Backbone:
């Protein structure tokens, strides 16, 4: 009987110890699961930081885009100016525009009543009143007003915005020197050819160009 009681007491102690150990193990597991994971915290923080950085990058102004727009403005303005000029003078011929621009820049008298145009072919005498005169080496154009005081401009166009300017008078006066020296007129007109000046013609003011075009009275071929 005493042996049986000892056996019963031993089993009871073992059972109690086992239950105690199981309870301790469960408490440790619950505490462990309730504690935050260091790795998880770091990952969440990292994702949030990346998201903020992405938003800041998307909201930041595009400096290159702004710079390109600013740099392109002068070019766009220049194109618009050229388009406006083309539209303003589009109803006139290139020759009419040329005559008006040449006179606007080089005409001796800008206050003219009319603008006359005479085409002189190559080989024509520079002074048609003197048979000893040298001849034009190319086709030229002579612009003049209706009065002697208006003067004239004699030139040939080069097709690139420049002209060859001949210093030819509108009226030729009788010269006593020519009567004494029969070679005078030939030498004088040859010097005119040698002293031809290359001149760049500006586009000028459109309103002034149109005003002069409206004063064209004839274009003698």
Residues:
């Amino acid at each position: 009987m005493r042996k049986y009681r000892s056996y019963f007491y031993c089993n009871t102690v073992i059972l109690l110890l086992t239950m105690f150990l199981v309870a301790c193990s469960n408490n440790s597991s619950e505490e462990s699961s309730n504690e935050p994971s260091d790795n998880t915290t770091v990952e969440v923080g990292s994702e949030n930081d990346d998201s903020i950085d992405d938003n800041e990058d998307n909201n930041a102004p595009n400096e290159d885009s702004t710079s390109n727009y600013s740099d392109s403005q002068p070019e766009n303005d220049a194109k618009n100016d050229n388009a406006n000029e083309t539209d303003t003078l589009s109803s006139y011929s290139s020759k009419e525009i040329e005559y008006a621009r040449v006179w606007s820049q080089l005409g001796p008298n800008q206050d003219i009543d009319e603008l006359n145009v005479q085409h002189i072919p190559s080989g024509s005498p520079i002074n048609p009143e003197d048979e000893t005169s040298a001849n034009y080496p190319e086709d030229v154009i002579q612009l003049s007003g209706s009065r002697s005081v208006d003067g004239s401009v004699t030139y040939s166009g080069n097709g690139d915005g420049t002209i060859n300017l001949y210093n030819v008078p509108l009226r030729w006066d009788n010269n006593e020197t020519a009567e004494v020296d029969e070679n005078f007129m030939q030498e004088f007109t040859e010097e005119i050819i040698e002293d031809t000046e290359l001149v760049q013609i500006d586009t000028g003011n459109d309103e002034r160009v149109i005003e002069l075009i409206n004063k064209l009275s004839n274009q003698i071929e």
